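Bumping with the actual sequence this time:
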Amino acid sequence: YKYIVQDAETGKRVHESGDDRLISGREMKQAEFGKLLIVQEDGHFRHAGHWKGAGVAVPVFSLRSRDSVGCGEFSDLCHLVDFCAQSSLSIIQLLPVNDTSVHDNWMDSYPYSSLSVFALHPMYLSLSGVVKTCGGDKAPGAEADLAAIRVEVEAARRALDLATVDYEGTMRTKEEICEKLFHYQRESCHSDPNFATFLRENAFWLAPYATFCALKKVFGHSDHSNWGSMKNASYALVRRMVTGLREPEGSAGNSESTEDFGALWMDLLELFNPKRTGEPKSDFMVPFKGLIAYSCYVQYHLHRQLTGVVRYAEGRGVALKGDLPIGVDKNSVECWVKRRCFRMEACAGAPPDYYSMQGQNWGFPTYNWEEMGNDNFAWWKQRLGHMANYFHAYRIDHILGFFRIWEVPSSNDESAVNLNTLLPGLLGCFRPAIAITKADLDSKGIWDIDRLCKPYITMDLLEEVFGRLAASVADFFLFKRHHYYEFKEAFTESNVTFWMDNANWGENFVAYLRADAESNSINLGDVVETVQKGLREILQNVVLLRDLGGEETFHPRFGCLQTHSFKALEPWVQGAISHFHDEYFFRRQDDLWRKNANKILPRLLEESRDMLVCGEDLGLIPQCVPSVMSDLGILGLRIQRMPSDSSREGEFGD
């Protein structure tokens, strides 16, 4: 059989290309019992030819126009749509547009570290667009108030019309003006049917998001692990913050399901009820309710403005392509609401490559796919269903993460976590992965596992790395065990001691050198930086890494065959480790990763609706990736400066 696409109005049919599809086995034998309905999910429609289109990729903030305040806004996309339509360009690809306000400073300008995967970034709100929705208020002084706001918007536009974007100034100014618009419009929202529809369709994410933003404002930071009794979200907590009512004892209100939050849409609407907005100030929940209502108000107008752009683009024959970041910030709404779905003890990253010899550590917690699979990946389905409101296509950032992720241990030092101190990607490993077991090592006669997992430090290595400082480094940081050295306990309590800036050990080591007569001739100006770099190099001088989940499984460190530790092993041990290394990186993982992707990606595609799906498949690509993407109808990326194994010769011309 083959599939066809039929035009509902004209009846015209298009048959797919390629070989016939087949159904065989048990299903066909059942046909003899009468009529049989067979539901097949066997890939995408195979078009005879490929659609081709040209477009432009752009961050929204760069589209500043004469009406913008501080940066490009959603409404400015209409100007780009006009340009594309006039230039025969058919698609606009945007960088992520989700709220990234984790730190409330310039660091939030990085678009791939989401505070929420559902909420839109307040930076892209057009204040003049919100002002245009105001009016009709007959209250005394209302028109004068609105006129004053218009003047303030224009003054802000002129003040922030700078050569570069003032991120913090733009965010601060927009919040100040938007709060005035919120108070001006708050009560009228209650009778707006479009606002009620927005709340009903989005409360599943909006209720916890708005509550999170309110708590972030009260606590002064987004690190929910330090929010005391409120560090873990629950239906009961969010409902109490929205309504001021406690859940009855023994009720089902402790569920973490986001579907439960959707039931709060009418409670959110009540926050705008004119009869309730004048509640006595003695009610200590009133400020919380106002903060929650404000976030709902901002998100509603962002939604209105972006959906308006979508309709405008469709009318001009231009598609919008979104971006699906692979990770979320550890201090995000998602990690607060769905903590069990994330491995907070690990960070996502990438192994070393030509562009980054130390690898990459992005600081995002990795996904607990087993937990996410328990509800058939409902969070992912909701996320993609939400994206379909705004985009006709989307790019999956780092699609390799759905096959396997490069996982780096998080810091075990709370002070380092607060400083966002990260271990290098070089000390990561694949997850999921078929790791090396203790039984594997035993079978080769390798029993001294500590020798392979701990830094192997000899005086020869210290002299090679530190030169004249070798003896001082050994005396201050290390102790001698047999013919090699190990770090003193004081320097092993934290796994990021030598990746932290301004650590106490630096001052203490300099004081030690000053007291050492033999070290007086050493220039102490940059000694801490030099020693820190050397100590990091030594700590990475290992052959195997212990798995985060257990003491009995191990992963070869990337590039371990070039380490001093490996080269000091006996030849027969080197041979065994080389075998495990090649098996781990090049042979034993492919089937596992294929199964992992085929378990996850089809569920995501179910909710992609009519969106065209493109996966960012650059970097170190496992053999299974191109075939899985092809089977699922997911487009890949071909970039001239980063050719991959799946790139065709001559694809970019001569």
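The tokens above came from a reply further down the thread. Confidence is low (pLDDT under 50) at residues 251-258.
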